[in-house]
Amino acid sequence: MSIEVEHKVGFFTDLHLGLHQNSEKWHDVTYKWAQWYTSELKSKNTKKIIFGGDLFHYRDEINVKTLFFANTLLDLFNDFEILMIPGNHDAYYKDNSTIHSLSILNNRSNITVFDTPSVETISNKRIGFCPWGTEVENIPDNCDLIVGHFELQNFNFNSFKVCENGMESAEILNKCNLIFSGHFHNRQYRKYDNGEIIYAGNPFEMDFNDIGDQKGYYILDLGSKNIQYDFFKNNISPTHVKVNLSNLQTLKNIAKKKGWSNIAVKIIIDKDIKSNLLDKIIASINFEAPFSFTTDYLHKFSIGDKISLTNEFGDLNIKQCIIEYIESLDVEDKAEVITKTVHLYNKFS
């Protein structure tokens, strides 16, 4: 069904700029996502966006490089009107949004930040905006949609932890029968007799807690009698993959489908293995240049046990891997670093 332009509103949340110690690699992921997202919205004739909180990751201080990046990133959104609320990561205090980092956006004419409970009428629909820390009694009444950064009981914080505190679903649904919220990164939908609650989740995977959770964004149709919405998948950002050492073929299959540079890999050492063979496997995976690579252990490491495990990544030249890795680094005196590193490798291999 075609939606008239003025009735279409995009919704996303929990961008967490500065994630992973203000990593430039994650800045790059975010920028590429934003290029894709803004292009998607333009192709769908959507010019208005609602953001559900947590623009920044660190609440106590924001890195200068991340501030600079945020300014560059938001330039991509200059053609859109953006309505925002602070999330808990944007707020200085743990229980309210009276002081928040989104205040630095006040000079952007296309961005409105609601840091107190407010109501905005869009396409004849009353939309309530509830920043982090809004109490139940302060949630606006008689709204067609409530947007918040809520902590609701019995919803999932992530793939393994359930929220045991906070508001009850019944309390918030007494205020409005359609709730869109940020805060929890797992995308969740629950329908009740008197309404619906949607946690939109983060727009792309950010850590291994996001495995198996399809990321994306929503577009809301405010033109119909009851607000309608659609979810659109993000299949362009890196995904996280956790694979047992005993099942490396699975990793090869995933990498073939998604590309090594688009997967963050964690290998679970689920059986004993000789150190030299493990080193070869680790080196061979690093050589493929995944987005990131870490290992974790289920068992004690044993050098002496005899096992039957082949190197599924084929023959490789560890020394050449070392050289190529150093060549890729932004360091001075690469030739000297290579010489000394190879010398150490020859000495202990």
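(ticket continues) Second input and output from the same batch:
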Amino acid sequence: MQQNLAYAVWQRIAAGALNDGDVERLAEEIGLSSRQLRRVLLQHFGVTPVELAQTQRLLFAKKLLQETGLPMTDVAYAAGFGSVRRFNALFAERYKMAPGSIRRASATDSEGIILRLAYRPPYAWDEALQYLAARAMPGLEAVLEDKSGKSYVRSVSIGDRQGWLQVRHVADKQQLSLQVAPALAPVLMPLLAKVRNLFDLDANPLVMESYLQTDTLLAAQIQRTPGLRVPGAFDAFELAIRAILGQQISVAGASTVAGRLVRRFGMPIETPFAEVSHHFPAADLLAGMPVEEIAQIGLTKSRAATIRNLAVFAVEGGLQMPAGISLEDAVARLKTVGGVGEWTAQYIALRALRFADAFPAGDLALQKAAAVAPETRITEKQLLARAHPWSPWRSYAALLLWQSLSYPKQSKD
């Protein structure tokens, strides 16, 4: 538990949670005192919160210097430094050289900032895009294909910054290439954390696969698609709303309704992509909206009420789970939202909250995929029993099962 807590804190700091230097605020968000927070990081990483944040900022600044043509001032502020002078001094102290000495030769980012995001191979890129494409919300995001291959595109709104991003696969370098609008430079640190979460780039597929392939039900799919990831969420609130829209209807039907929600209530934005035209509606907007108005996109009043309930929950900080919270407690917390049941809570935990052991056993597709005979399915209780040995990697098992439905099932006598 302590190790999970330390890793969760590290993730928040790497995403810029201490760029304002407020250790007390971070500790309060996590549910610890500042002294406890300091003790956890010293025990697991040997550094204080401020020291860890400084290291992360310097590493991020070095990445920007080596991969982009951003002006030095933009690099300093994007990496969370309060001033260029402070950045120059700390960089020289740590690396024994001036920041300018390591910057890339080219310095033109007029069409977008491009960064490289590494992953542990293998990576099932086509399957990741297939999953995201099927669940994409029209107007907000899309999977495109051109002469350079397939890519994922979407609008971005972080703080007071708006723009767009495009992600491509660079297979020979075992990287994803991320291009973002220049206007997003000040929020690159949290943006990269969101993209890494969306594409599950910190996973070690060999660990999960070696554990799960001992089960014959999963082994065949692992051989077909090595490197399968659990697509996460760029934003927890929009994923949670998408999960609610997916209750008891098809994936395609949920995407259609989600597109109506985006275009009806989301702010418009100009992007290089005809398919991306709006931001996702803000939580405070939906929280204050009459149920009848939300229902006009083609929802029952009860489903529209669940949307508003979730928006109120998000505005009140409900989706900001304490670091180190257990899966059981996170699911219980989500189920306090009126209209959110076990399936929805587990799905949100699986994708938005990145619980590796989340498992929506009530999902009919999973029950069908786990059945022995074609065109049959097992019960939720049977599936939970079947999935028990897959713990603590049940979320990856779920993706394998969903993916297996793309292949014909052979009858077994």
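Agent notes: Strands lie at 113-118, 141-146, 149-158, 161-170, 175-180. The chain has 20 helices and five strands. Closing as not reproducible unless the customer responds.
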